[in-house]
Amino acid sequence: MMRYSGIIYNDTAAAPGVCLTFFTQGCPHHCKGCHNPETWDYEGGQRFTNDVLEDIIRGLRANGVNRTLCIMGGEPLCDRNIFLTTLLIQQVKAKYPNQKIYLWTGYTYEELVKRYDNKTKYVLSNIDCLIDGPFIEELRDTTLQMRGSSNQRIIYSKEIVNGK
Ligand code: SF4
């Protein structure tokens, strides 16, 4: 059964502009100092249903505001969550082909590029921005845009080569 952690429908903190932020449930990384340890348990969170998907699709354009879709964890790209992440991106893109999508992962870009499964390729080819790498407490820096620690990188789609 697919589960997710939560949704912020009007998020002005995640990325530039107004965002709809979707949190997946379940994370294998267990970074020391993680701010969302309640997202680690794969059995936690809530059931993802078709109604949730419809709420997201409506929410992305509610009140005429064009929101960026932010996907973060938990871990959106682990084995247990990548199906839901792919499904969400496919459904949103089917409705809004130009939808802007930012995705946060605890894997590094290099680790993702080494994967050969179609879902990882699909995700990398269909997002506008990847924020990569685990949170490392010793490298914590609260002044960084969109990141918690300085090892993490902001990689825009033109630099994402896999699947293109
Ligand atoms: S990847 Fe993110 S959610 Fe997972 S443990 Fe690290 S900081 Fe927490």
CATH architecture: Alpha-Beta Barrel
Q: What is the count of distinct domains?
A: 1
- Shape label: globular
CATH homologous superfamily identity: Aldolase class I
What's the main sheet like? 7 strands, mixed
Our count of helices gives 4
- Binned, the helix content reads 10-25%
The span between the termini is 31 Å
Low-confidence stretches: none
- Give the total of beta strands: 7
Query: In the CATH hierarchy, what is the class?
Result: Alpha Beta
Report the oligomer.
single chain
CATH topology name: TIM Barrel
What characteristics describe this protein?
binds iron/sulfur cluster; TIM Barrel; alpha/beta; globular; 164 residues; seven-stranded mixed beta sheet
Outline the structure in words.
- The N and C termini lie far apart (31 Å).
- Helix content is 23%, strand content 21%.
- Helix 2 crosses helix 4.
- The mean pLDDT is 95.
- The protein is built from 4 helices and 7 strands.
- The radius of gyration is 15 Å and the shape is globular.
- The chain has 164 residues and is α/β, with parallel strands linked by helices.
- A 7-stranded mixed sheet has the order 3-1-2-4-5-6-7, covered by helices on one side.
- Bound molecules: iron/sulfur cluster.
Strand and helix layout:
Blueprint: E1 3-11, E2 19-24, E3 46-47, H1 50-59, E4 68-72, H2 82-95, E5 101-104, H3 109-113, H4 118-126, E6 129-132, E7 153-156
Parallel strand pairs: 2-4, 4-5, 5-6
Antiparallel strand pairs: 1-2, 1-3, 6-7
Helix pairs in contact: 2-4
Bound molecules: iron/sulfur cluster.
